[in-house]
Amino acid sequence: MGTLIQGGTVVTASDVVFADVLIEGREVIAIAKHIEEKGHQVVDATGCYLFPGGVDPHTHLDMPFGGTVTADDFRTGTKAAAFGGTTTVIDFALHSKGSTLRDALTTWHQKADGKAAIDYAFHVMVGDMRQEVMDEIPMIVEEEGVTSFKLFMAYKNNLQVDDETLFRVLRVAAKAGALVQVHAENGDVIEVLVNEALARGQVEPKYHALTRPPEAEGEATERAIRLAEIAGAPLYVVHVTCAQAADAISDARKRGLPIYGETCPQYLVCDVTDYDRPNFVGAKYVMSPPLRAKSNQAVLWGKLRNMELQSFGSDQCSFNLKGQKELGLHDFSKIPNGSPTIEDRMAILYHYGVIQGQLSLQKFVALTSTNPAKLFGLYPRKGTIAIGCDADIVVWDPSVERTISVETHHMNVDNSIFEGMRVTGIPKYVFLRGTLIVDGNTFVGEDGFGEFQRCERFSNVSL
Ligand code: URP
Ligand code: ZN
Ligand code: ZN
Ligand code: ZN
Fold this sequence. Notes:
EC number: 3.5.2.-
Enzyme class: hydrolase
Pfam families: Amidohydro_1
Largest sheet: 9 strands, mixed
Strand content: 15-25%
Protein name: D-hydantoinase
Number of strands: 19
CATH class of the domain at 53-375: Alpha Beta
CATH topology of the domain at 53-375: TIM Barrel
Helix content: 25-40%
Radius of gyration: 21 Å
Domain Amidohydrolase-related: 49-436
Bound molecules: N-(aminocarbonyl)-beta-alanine, zinc ion
CATH architecture of the domain at 53-375: Alpha-Beta Barrel
Number of helices: 12
């Protein structure tokens, strides 16, 4: 006796087929044109797509940042993710000064274990890259099931690493089978521009964007790519926002280098003019890199369509306007960076991508699930619908229209950067390892049902 999802259209990164799917226990055990009901529990998916559960490769849950802690933790953030069709998150364990990578992972397990409603894996976001920390990388890969590390080229005097450190880490990581991720913005340039703006009394949210120009992202992206090229290492560039950075990735890939890029929903549908919203509402869009001129959106869509950007993360990092974003009421540089995006990641890409004719269904699945799973060593257990894989399945109803709003979202935060947007398509049912966790508007899963997923070493996936 299993669960039979009947009458839907199964979408993977390669195919769109009308088929029934049979789940037994935690796995998919059969996919066929027609499967007999005989005693199975039948789920009607008529008129719906079956997508592999979303894999969000970029989240910050329960993370101390900018003098406060993100509004969503593993309990609220993963539930909101589930409502949006995401069944696995790869969260960034923050490594702090003076501690070890293992300390960071111990802390992150404590934050997630027993709370996460969906499956989770970790990257480490390295805050203090000393020699001992570099030496720890092979052991973390081997023993902890964590195979990717994020370094910062921005946030000077805090998280920023210099070129020597980045280069050394790229070599160590490549040898250990790990993938280095970079936050690519030139932190030295930004530091000068921020200080000059503040000295001129330019304190409003819009100066966040004006002091972090796209050239600073393009330059850092090009530099990181060159360092990876010399090191003979693969590289993953997180949250790509602009033509300058995206073109650098395309150029590198034309040279045959294993360079990968991620963008996020906010950079596709919000733009620099959102910072002009009055009464400090612009602060809800303060994130790094910042929102860009609208002309960049078409560039990013083109790169997603051509798979020159292969991955789609939310960069979920939620802060309340009240009490959190307000820390920077009189100084934009003190506004905690980040926005709530975990819940609407798939809806935004589906509506503005698939419905508006930018992306095929297969590319939507590749970006939201398959490619992140491949890049971070979770495929094929995660990232597809196939026999023997985890039965993480979203029954997506493409006929429902809704308006995104803070009034109805499930994230634990007082603002939405997508407020008022009309989107088509919503999960009707969400299954995680064969268990129904979302039934329409109702969460039917459990806190702590999420399991930690060990990531395999990076292997040159031809994406
Ligand atoms: O503004 C952002 N993106 N906050 C989260 C941290 C990061 O840099 O990814
Ligand atoms: Zn039948
Ligand atoms: Zn970043
Ligand atoms: Zn981030």
